[in-house]
Amino acid sequence: MVHRTILAPLGVGILYWAAAAMSLALTNGADGVATMWPASGILFAALIVLPARLRWPCLGFAAIGSVIANAMAGLTAATVIGFTIANMAEALVASALLRHWSPHRPSFIVPRDVLAFTAASVIAALWSATIAWIAAGQPGELFLPSWFVTVTLGMLIVTPTALLMLALVNPQSRAAVCQGSARRAAGLLTMVFAVTLAVFAQNSYPLLFLPLVALLAATYGLGPVGAASGVAIIAIVAPLMTGMGRGPLGLMLQSRIEMSFFLQFYLVVLFATALPLAALLAARDRLGRQCADSERLHRLLADTSSDVIVRFSNDGHPVYISPAVIRILDMTPAEVIAAPVMEPIHPDDREMVRANWLRLLTGDPNASLVVYRHRRRDGSYVWLEAAYRIVDAAPGTPAEVIASIRDVDARHRAELDAVRAVKRMQETNRLLALAERAAGVGHWRLGVADGTLFWSPEVFRIHGIAENEMPTAEDAIRFYLPEERPRIGSLVGQSMALRVGFDFEGRIVRPGGEVRHIISRGQPEFDPDGVFIGLFGIFQDVTLQVIAGRELEAAKRAAEDAAAQALRLVDIDALTGVSSRRKAMAALDEAIVDSRAAGLPLAVAIFDIDHFKGVNDRYGHAAGDAVLRRVARVAKEAVRPTDLVGRLGGEEFLVLLPGAPAANAVAIAEQLRTAVAASGGGVEVGPRVTVSVGVALLSEDASAASLLGDADRALYRAKAAGRNAARLAA
């Protein structure tokens, strides 16, 4: 196990030694000037690719290779150690910076990755050059820039080439980094090699631009692999031929050092031209593919949505209408587009719709939603809800408006019923307020010294007796119902003894036997010296309030019943009696939460009636409605009591199957399908029909939308299989 662990770092160390030894041999030791230092690129690539546990062993073996290569070149021990530290530092710093800026492995198909890689290489090379300059005893002025450029080129040219070659091995990343076939790659890279060799094999003409042309052709044809491999080919051929005394550089330069620096500059220009261009081209191609996929998905969504998707020009004329309009208006998209824009709208709603459109174009956010009536083919009107959104077009092109229009006829009528119920409750509350304002209130006083009682005229009127004689406290207590007299007498006595207030409700009996409901409140009364002198209070006949309260409670219950009925209308599909789309979607969201909380499976099934349009066309809409009611009833009977059946719209239904694994869900779907196929055939229930069913199971990361999408795709598979079938989503 141990030898397998060190195999990769050992291989990196051997490659590092070979590259370093070759570079030192070509430069004739420490005094020569190398065009690039490929060993740094090899180690940088290894630190990027290898896991964290192998990075330090990799650095260790590479350091050993560096020491051996520098020692073979005849350098002193101190210089060997200093140069090795500099070489290890450059790879370590570059890989650390790259992981900080870009946690994933650089793909060189994203411009940001190319920028991060280049910056990390330049900064690391600067660190390395500084360390080597100090280790070499601060030599001449050419040492620092020569080391910096040599190391930078080694990482910029070798590392991308190595990483892209590794990406070619992975089938998933191959297409992203290389756009052409193997034959095409071989041809273009051979062309780069041949052009470079031809240019640098002669010294008669300054044709340095030709390798750049060949490199650009390889970049356009192959992408990042073509750019990196082409630069690497030029970086190998050009220095070798120049070192052999060949090439066009001799026409301009005489010194080998000048030629080496010029080659370094030349390679930097090639790298800065090719690899960023390849990344931009890859980004352009990726964006093009994303746009094409987005357009395809949006078209599929518009064509299959139960809502009508409409695209308007900025003058308000529809230029596209999805097929769902057939279900709502019984008209084809072409018929609706050909009709005058405002003519099918209800006359009472036209001005409102026109004004809303103008406000929408001015950017009014309150104009994004409008509810209006639209005429159907049969002349009846249906309530529609349109949600608008302005879509910015390309520069110089007029903006468009996208609208999602849905049938809200049943919901709107239920909302009107709910509004009427609320108004009835508000009217009852208003009458109650009037009754409270009209209630009479009297006052009374009970002295502590002689126990005399005083009533105001209103108190006498409430008791139903004349004001000819003041009653005593005992007489006042006897007006209350016998069962209430002990309680009230005790409250008054305690208040007198403890000098505290009281508040009670009671019932008194008038001389004619009439019972009145009263409220009496008392507070202790003190003279200016603080001496307790008696009780003072109010006496109020609340009989009307009690009666009104009872009536209010009855009205409140009636209003609540009406509101509950209105909500039931919103939650129940008016035609079929099953759950409405709103109720079904809310139940789906709740079922997903419950399923994940309990750790139980959840399945959904979407089914629709096969060839339902043919039923309407052949037997009429009344028969079609009868079929919808029958299918909904049969579906409710076919599923479990814990399952929910809802109508999504038209002939499409949703079944929630909480706790059902795949086998049970498919069995229930089959049971539903066979039950529907066996039902019908009478005049009242419509002709026989079949249904196609798509079943999907909730996965860990699925949303309501994705779960419905899986079921919908399974439904289409069932239809593609010949209809009257049930299919489970893959």
Automatic annotation (TrEMBL):
Its main location: membrane. InterPro entries: Diguanylate_Cyclase, GGDEF_dom, MASE1, Nucleotide_cyclase, PAC, PAS, PAS-assoc_C, PAS-like_dom_sf. Residues 502-554 form the PAC domain. It comes from the Bacteria. Keywords: Cell membrane, Membrane, Transmembrane, Transmembrane helix. Residues 600-730 form the GGDEF domain. The chain crosses the membrane at residues 6-26, 33-54, 60-93, 114-135, 147-169, 181-201, 207-240, 261-283. It is found in: Cell membrane. It holds the Pfam family GGDEF. It is a multi-pass membrane protein. Residues 294-364 form the PAS domain. Its EC number is 2.7.7.65. NCBIfam families: GGDEF (TIGR00254), sensory_box (TIGR00229). This is diguanylate cyclase. It comes from Sphingomonas longa. The lineage of its organism: Bacteria, Pseudomonadati, Pseudomonadota, Alphaproteobacteria, Sphingomonadales.
